Amino acid sequence: MIKSTNWIMDNLNDSDTVFLHIGAEKTEFQQGHLLNAVWADGYGDFTTERNGIRALVPEKNQIESTLGKMGILGKNGSQKIICMARDISPWPYRAYWVLKYFGVENVFVAASSVLAMEKNGLATTTSESNPSEVSCEVQPANQNIIIDQESILAVSENQKPGLILDCRSSEEYRGLPGQHPAARYGRIPGATHLNWEDLLDIDGQLLDTEQLVALYTDSGVDGNTPVYPYCGGGIRSAVSWFVMSEILGWANTKNYDGSWAEWSHLEHLPIEAN
User: In whole angstroms, what is the distance from residue 181 CA to residue 164 CA?
Assistant: First the structure.
């Protein structure tokens, strides 16, 4: 699930490895990236808008078109895809989650940010490569790693077992306007809180397993009860989903893709704030 800087250095020229550099602004890619890395626009390539709700997972045909332009074959290829970002970022984890949602195999997240790789002696470039477009086909959506607002409401109202985990900042959790505009401000009733940034160190590397378990335990999450992380748009929450599902091996976790963008938009849904 994770590829170390040493592994990346040893495989920089592997023609069957795609280094997917993803972010919200292309300027970070232009500041320096791995040789032959492919740029991915986080919002433009790995989210879409439906019914006035932003940052939802793309449709199958959309992701096939996007990946094909990046030279990614999908289910018909044997490529290894390494997701990374210039600095500390949730976007590699969002890309990983979306790719897994569509059944793409051999997907990994770089152990640290590109900035940290540079500090460790890995050479980067500002030159851009143009991958050859291919025909990409992915699997039908994997419903085992996503949850919808109806199910989240049932958990919130204690009609369905589970914990709702708010992965946003503490200010957003308390109902203060944050970096992401919303129709309403607050949190899903009953949600516990663990900021996604607390899971990473200053190099963008995940904390060790013992530290991660301690953080979740402090937030009331033990891996035995189903856990449903959310954030502003299913992006930051993908970090927590990755940690719980792929690092800690907690199978009962699903990302609430609609997250606060959807919940705040639907006025009949209850909110808490304090």
Answer: 21
